[in-house]
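Supplementary Text 2. Reproducibility record for the structural model of the 244-residue chain.

All settings were left at their defaults, and a single model was retained for analysis rather than an ensemble. We include the record here because the model underlies the residue-level annotations in Supplementary Table 4.
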Amino acid sequence: MIGVGISQNVYLSSVTMDDKGVLDITFKENTPEAKMNVFEAMQSGEAIDTSAFEKTVKLFAPMEPFEKDSKGNPVTQEKRAGAMQRELTERQQVLIHLLKGYTTSDAYTRIGKESFSGLDINKDNYESEILKKEVFIQVHKNRCRVFIEEITPFLNDDTLLFRLLLVRQDKDKHFATFRKKNVEDNPFWEPMDIPAEASKVKFTPQEIKDGLNDGTPSQRSEAADKKPAGDKPAGTTNAATIFG
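Retained model, structure tokens:
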């Protein structure tokens, strides 16, 4: 079953995005157990239960950063824009990391090149524009659109198999999601061609310490909202790096 942990022989089956910019990425297992599940259902005439061998992971658009910190002090525009830039970058890294399993650099560099398509944004107004909801949502959608276009030819191919690591969303919520930090050094998926003894797909010591490798439901409310981008340590913008 695909969930929090490391799954073997996984492939991408579908990718869709809704009008709010929520990207649904569905994985399936190509295992004897999964095939037997389908075979037995077909023989009995029952509906095929795919829940045991597929998983949809949602990649949400960022939330608007807080205007005040936990002490009630105003957060500067520069730091709020920095927080937003970090949130967008984390999502972009997930998309690129997935695409690298299938494509060349010409494909996945499109995500960065087309980030601001249809937007009147440049290095001079970036700091203020990127904090507008319609702008940062569109940046996220642009990147997801490119991802969908580039990944579509490879969907539902059960010969392209990977190891997939999903982490717990946070201490309160056991839902499986992508690791979003340092994915180049700590990949969350790799081709099954890589021998298990050489695999780099593993939980980091910090993830284990924080219990993010445990998919067991907790006693705390599963309905608690995820903290918005601004509730994380604020960063700073670097528009010159983005626009050159």
